[in-house]
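Moderator note: this is an archived Q&A kept for reference. The question asked for a predicted structure of one protein chain; the sequence and the answer are reproduced below.
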Amino acid sequence: MEKLKRYVFDHFESHFIFTILVSVILINFFVYSKIAFLNFYYLPIMLAGYYLGRRTAVLGAFFTILMVWVFVLADLDHYYALEEKSFHLYFHLTVWAGFLILAGWIIGGLKEKLRFTDKLREELAQEKQMLDITNKRLNEYSNQLESKVSERTQELERSQGNVESLKTRVEDTLFSVMDSKVARLMIEGKLRNEKRRISVLFSDLKDFTVYSDQNPPEQVINELNSYLGEMEDCITQFYGHIDKYIGDGIMVEFGAPVKYKNHAVLAVLAGLTMQERMKKTHTQWKMRVGIATGVSVLGLLGSKRKSYSCIGNTANLASRLEELCEPGEVFIDHNTYMIVQQYFHVSRIRSVYGKREADKIVEAEILSLENLLNQNPNDLQMLYALGQAFYKKRAASAAMEVFQKILKINPDHVEAREAYDEAEKKQDEFEKIAIRGKQERVSIYRVIGLKDPLMDRNKIPRYFYDKYAAVTSNMKLPLELIHASEAVDGTLGHGKTVALLSYALAEKLGLSHKEKEELLIAGYLHDLGKIIIPHEIRGTDRPLSKYEQALVYQHPLESVRMIQQLGYTSEILLKYVKSHHEHYDGSGYPDRLKGEQIPLGARILSIANDFDVLTSHRKNQAGLNYQNAIKELQRKTKAGKYDPQCLGALVQLMNLQTTPSRWLAFPMKTSSRH
């Protein structure tokens, strides 16, 4: 059947011509009413137009008309018999012929359009088929691509993991042989060679060589590593860079590679902390510490194996000071002394003081004369004897001060004049010590300990100190952490002053014992969160960027977080610390609380904090005395910064009777403490 259909379609044109020919012959020879069968010819012509196209249909119509006309003319009687006149026959045939050609033309045209449409449809079908094939291939490729991307991503992740692992191992290796800050700066390419003013610390153990010779190596190494671990903790807590271990000795730089401006204070704090730690953990040994401050050359030393270190006179002097240092002490040079004297009790080292029995006799003589002079301070004979005693002690500066006092009372005192001149000549010889490797003698000082900020009578009246100084005697606080934070911006003692002042104000305002204790702890710890503020902008006077301001505004929240990490969980304490920078008029931070929305303890902490700022030495500027500080706080209270009742309590606490009574008129409200 399919073959027959294919055959018919393949030979349709010849079949069509044959069919037309046979039809014309049969109709014209055998059909009686030939005119009636003229409409039959429309069928093959329309089929021809549909299947063969316009040209073939028109040719077929023309051929059919020609054949019919041949038969009409050949046998006119058969056609004419049906018509009354021949004119009608010819007209009929002409109209028929026109319509037959028109039918072939129209049907052929429609078919051609249909063919064009079919062709478009076929092309669209082919395009759709190709599109389907393409989509299928794209989907397959996409799936393959996703698989490949996934595989490649996994490979990259594995590679990145390997790189990170390698980087971690490299960093761990670097951190094990050098300071982590140095290693990180090396990796980031930010480490450079330079000259910078820094403080250098040297330490070592007295008679450790004898100990190492008398004990098994395992014991020696274990004990030494334990000791070095304790010292490393003390050093890093105060931002020191451990340059190297020299057997039982340690070389440390402060102020490098990170440039801390108060490096001398940090170095002395580290030295004192190291000595305190030694007394608690390694009582079998005594340690010596020497610290010097000055300009040094800093950089990576070595060809293949490099280490970050310093060279120059400062490092040499620190090493010599450590050699001269008495076991259990911290010795510093003059440059360090000039920086740290406001924070630490320091005594000057004489070349022979403390090494002879005669020194103890001289000390007793000086003490006796000073007691006598307390009763009669202008006794020239005793003053002269005191000056001579200081001269015997080789304390030339102290002797000169005594002789100068005599000359003020009696300018014609010849012996005092001569003794003053002699002491002045001997001042460098007596009070400076010859250091190996240095041509000139140097001044050396022993660090005794931290000064108590409450002993400053310009800051705190004597009766306040006598009443509240013992409050913190039994408290266990992370003092090393507090001191490290305060030393960075030069505010040593700030936490203690704020704590005791806040405690006293809380007592004045009638807070409970628990609230006073929480406020005492908050005063000590309130500024720990300053660690998130870059050290170079802490205490700066320049305008801060928006980012830097945001860090400053966040430090109370960081303080809260750090206090919680230390194990303090009291909600009262945390609220006090969080809100201690809120202002009474709502202009503070971090939450812009206003008035009694601010916990009373936080309002107390705020005014105590600023009182200490006003009365402290900052940037080589003397602080205000407490009377002038109160006046400044009064001015700011008028502007809306502080709670007036807290100011009134502070005025009463300082026993300032001349303060206007309006500052004392505010009732001591305690209803909204928390």
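Archived answer notes: The chain is about 60% helix and 10% strand.
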